[in-house]
């Protein structure tokens, strides 16, 4: 594998861009409970890029893999001292510009990895990838949230048990399904990655999570009920409403004490272990590589690699602009009539 920052212009020109795969991690620094480093998401995004890239290079010696330095950008960060939050439009624009620069250099395959699950952060990354792909023709995509969503919703429990060589306990399954932000999965990841960066005492951190903002949850579920009666499948709508209600509730909790004492993690850190962390890391690399292989082989288009973060119009970076344009069009039509 090559590091982008070490390439000369001459070496760059010599590359066969049609058989070159670029990896670009994008995650910011954010508070992860009292026990994990601010760079938790940063480490996870880098792991997916480096390990997936290493495996791809080993399986395809006729390809070149380039690792780009991680971009320390993120939105929907916990508003606690230490988190580095950026406006969603800034995240979108920065990644779009980077993507267009890579496409302009002739690169055809660009993989954006990400360890942060903030809804608007994930939607900004996936929207930027789609827009670059549509405008330039380069195959730019971000598999990370689709990968992470499958893991934290229990889709890979059989694989986890196979790798552990034992069944998961009911408590472990509950912890893994109780949401994730410095909980069982991420704490386990860091115990495997670098245990020296995990503060002692995580073993005593019981289940916790943010309060959901009830008005948003109630309104969202009423809308889903109406859609249900119209015969629409609302499973993803309800999931996204729950995520948004949790994000708003967390914001209000951290800033104004909504719902009780300050919450800095979601899940059950006490159930974490290095053995679970090694399996988690294997899943991240394996599932990311699977999607990369799908695109590079032509089995799927870059636009088909998407997660639930791409399905809700409310969290898209261009949503308000679209609403404004639609409103202006309605006003213009009324004037003409």
Poorly predicted runs are 320-337
**What is the CATH C level class of the largest domain, in words?**
Alpha Beta
Q: How many domains make up the coordinates?
A: 2
CATH superfamily of the largest domain: Creatininase
Large-scale geometry: globular
N-to-C order of helices and strands = EHEHEHEHEHHHHHHHH
Q: Give the total of beta strands.
A: 5
Q: Strand count, sense and closure of the main sheet?
A: 5 strands, parallel
Neighbour order of strands in the largest sheet = 1-3-2-4-5
Sequence-ordered SSE layout with sheet pairings:
Elements: E1 2-3, H1 9-14, E2 20-25, H2 40-59, E3 64-67, H3 88-104, E4 109-113, H4 119-136, E5 139-141, H5 144-152, H6 157-164, H7 170-177, H8 184-193, H9 214-229, H10 235-256, H11 274-296, H12 319-336
Parallel strand pairs: 1-3, 2-3, 2-4, 4-5
Helix pairs in contact: 2-11, 3-4, 5-11, 8-11, 9-10
Provide a short characterization of the protein structure.
The protein is mainly alpha-helical.
Summarize this structure as a short list of keywords or feature phrases.
single chain; 337 residues; mainly alpha; Rossmann fold; five-stranded parallel sheet; 12 helices; globular
What does this protein look like?
It is globular, with a radius of gyration of 21 Å. A five-stranded parallel beta sheet has the order 1-3-2-4-5, with helices on both faces. Helix 2 crosses helix 11. It is built from twelve helices and five strands. The C terminus is likely disordered. The chain folds into two domains: 251 residues, Rossmann fold, CATH 3.40.50; 53 residues, no CATH class. The N and C termini lie far apart (62 Å). It has 337 residues and is mainly alpha-helical.
């Amino acid at each position: 594998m090559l590091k982008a920052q070490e390439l000369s212009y001459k070496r760059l020109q010599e590359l066969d861009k049609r058989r070159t795969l670029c990896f670009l991690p994008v995650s910011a620094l954010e508070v992860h409970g009292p026990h994990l480093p601010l760079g938790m998401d940063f480490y996870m995004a880098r792991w997916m890029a480096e390990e997936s890239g290493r495996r791809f290079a080993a399986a395809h010696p006729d390809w070149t893999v380039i690792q780009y330095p991680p971009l320390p950008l993120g939105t929907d960060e916990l508003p606690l001292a230490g988190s580095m939050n950026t406006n969603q439009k800034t995240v979108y624009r920065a990644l779009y510009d980077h993507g267009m620069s890579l496409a302009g250099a002739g690169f055809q395959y660009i993989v954006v990895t990400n360890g942060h699950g903030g809804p608007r952060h994930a939607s900004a990354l996936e929207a930027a990838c789609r827009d670059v792909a549509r405008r330039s023709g380069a195959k730019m995509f971000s598999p990370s949230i689709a990968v992470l969503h499958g893991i934290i919703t229990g889709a890979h429990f059989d694989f986890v048990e196979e790798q552990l060589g034992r069944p998961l306990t009911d408590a472990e399954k509950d912890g893994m399904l109780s949401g994730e932000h410095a909980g069982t999965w991420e704490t386990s990841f860091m115990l495997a990655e670098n245990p020296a960066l995990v503060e002692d005492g995580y073993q005593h951190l019981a289940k916790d999570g943010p309060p959901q903002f009830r008005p948003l949850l109630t309104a969202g579920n009423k809308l889903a009920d109406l859609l249900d009666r119209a015969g629409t499948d609302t499973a993803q709508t309800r999931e996204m409403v729950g995520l948004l209600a949790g994000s708003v509730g967390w914001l209000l909790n951290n800033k104004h004490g909504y719902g009780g004492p300050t919450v800095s993690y979601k899940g059950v850190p006490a159930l974490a272990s290095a053995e679970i962390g090694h399996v988690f890391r294997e899943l991240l690399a394996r599932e990311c590589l699977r999607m990369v292989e799908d695109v590079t082989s032509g089995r799927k288009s870059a636009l088909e690699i998407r997660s639930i973060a791409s399905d809700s119009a409310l969290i898209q970076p261009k949503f308000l602009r679209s609403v404004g344009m639609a409103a202006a069009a309605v006003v213009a039509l009324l004037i003409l009539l």
